[in-house]
Write a structure and sequence with these properties.
With 238 residues, the chain is of the alpha/beta class. The chain is built from nine helices and eight strands. It has a single domain, classed as TIM Barrel (Alpha-Beta Barrel). Strands 7-6-5-4-3-2-1-8 form an eight-stranded parallel beta sheet.
Length: 238
């Protein structure tokens, strides 16, 4: 089986699971944006995904993401589909924020005001506008390690919304390991409703990965971040 056939089969199975979860939740498939998480997978896989209709890719690490996008741009042929939108999903240090702001279309992992300000400066220097999500952490054992605790959402959201070069897209979370994701995703949806009372434009709810996206769809997620179910086991990091 060719690599294209492998990816096509994984994508088809994932789409069937998404459709089934949407039907069970009484939702329309058009409400869901599928982000194919391509971290550690080669640029050639992204090219195949693009040919299969994927419009959004997710990356977790800089400079891997930047190098992959550069390779994709360099290899573009006339008439090829547009490159997918790049969603930066991983934790981000402020000293790398300016670089990420040059190429990412959406940053899902904004968890502090200082990072929002760094992204704003990077986007301004690049002459572009960057969509940002506030990453929320529901961990009871080490709260705030990756994401902001719910009480801190308003400050980070205000920093994003107050920048001329950032747009507040909404909220993101990763369900705590070893816990039922459903109550955490439901909590995120309630927090999203609260956020939209102040910022109506913040409609994105980014939740759900290969192992738990059914629960995310049931809760009301708008964006799913799925890698392994589509692309197979992740290759070893180089």
């Amino acid at each position: 089986m060719s690599r294209r056939d492998e990816i096509a089969a994984g994508l088809a199975e994932t789409e069937q699971r998404i459709a089934a979860a949407c039907e069970a939740a009484g939702r329309d498939r058009s409400e869901i944006t599928l982000i194919a998480v391509t971290k550690t997978y080669p640029a050639s896989d992204v090219e195949l995904l693009t040919g299969l209709g994927i419009t959004d890719m997710g990356e977790n690490r800089h400079p891997e993401a930047e190098l992959k996008l550069d390779e994709l741009r360099a290899g573009r042929q006339t008439g090829a589909p547009p490159l997918p939108r790049c969603h930066f999903l991983g934790g981000l240090q402020t000293n790398k924020a300016g670089a990420v702001a040059r190429y990412a279309d959406v940053v899902h992992s904004v968890d502090r005001v200082k990072l929002a300000n760094s992204l704003a400066r990077g986007a301004e220097a690049a002459g572009r506008t960057l969509t940002c999500l506030v990453q929320v952490d529901f961990s009871a054992t080490d709260p705030g390690r990756s994401g902001v605790v719910p009480a801190g959402i308003a400050d980070v959201a205000s920093a994003i919304a107050g920048s001329a070069h950032l747009e507040l897209g909404g909220l993101m979370t990763v369900a705590p390991l070893g816990e039922d994701p459903a109550p955490h995703f439901a909590h995120l949806v309630r927090l999203s409703q609260d956020l939209r009372a102040e910022h109506p434009e913040a409609t994105i709810i980014s939740a759900g990965m290969s192992g738990d996206f059914g629960a995310a769809i049931d809760a009301g997620a708008t964006h799913l971040r799925i890698g392994r179910s589509i692309l197979g086991e992740r290759p070893p990091a180089g």
